[in-house]
């Protein structure tokens, strides 16, 4: 792992030197923007509309538009000077119980490894958090961006999850068309609770797969081999007409009873698509290669 930040976690007058590592990674399949005519990657340029010339990074400053067309500007050194006081410190303000934090506040997770010195303080903070079952709430500034953060222990390692400040979370009252205290049918509620019980299990992150990524990877492989992309038609959700019937069918499906018609339809569609694809591949036809054009 590559170190993305160095500093210290502080609580009271205790400093714990740490190195920060990104705990998650982006597994999306990368796609480039191409010019349709030539299949060549397009380029982005930084152009000033006034002089109509390309602008080098060294000639770029950041500006705040305080009224339309009028800016106050800051260069990199000015912004670093503003954030320098706390830029190397993760300052724990409070210790709280994990269940007190709504997941809506969480952003991105980092691991905090021990720094070159202070391993005793690092182990002390881990043990203290584990024995009290608490997490630290801290302020942190990384790359001129300040945020709230939760400091906790993950598999014996300190971790930091950046969090939104309360003012950054929109109130639910802004959501349009929310029902206002509509009553629910007792029988439907009981059926919904039974369905939730049937679908309740322990969280096992490895059992969940990125279905879109798998379909995209399969489509890429077929195109590279010069084959047509044939996908089973997507199962389209239908509008719920009878809520009780939908709950009964869902519960029956969850209990392993009669398969819902939609499920059968999906399997049949997938099977038909595969059969059709296999038959299509058996037909003699000239190999189709990916378009390869150039200037």
From TrEMBL:
InterPro entries: DNA_bd_Ku70/Ku80, Prok_Ku, SPOC-like_C_dom_sf. Residues 275-284 have a biased composition (Basic and acidic residues). Residues 251-274 have a biased composition (Low complexity). One of its GO terms (molecular function) is double-stranded DNA binding. Keywords: DNA damage, DNA recombination, DNA repair, DNA-binding. Residues 52-180 form the Ku domain. The keyword DNA-binding applies. Residues 285-295 have a biased composition (Basic residues). It comes from the Bacteria. Coiled coil: none annotated. Residues 251-295 are annotated as: Disordered. The keyword Signal does not apply. Belongs to the prokaryotic Ku family. NCBIfam families: Ku_bact. With LigD forms a non-homologous end joining (NHEJ) DNA repair enzyme, which repairs dsDNA breaks with reduced fidelity. Binds linear dsDNA with 5'- and 3'- overhangs but not closed circular dsDNA nor ssDNA. Recruits and stimulates the ligase activity of LigD. Homodimer. Interacts with LigD. This is Non-homologous end joining protein Ku. The gene is ku.
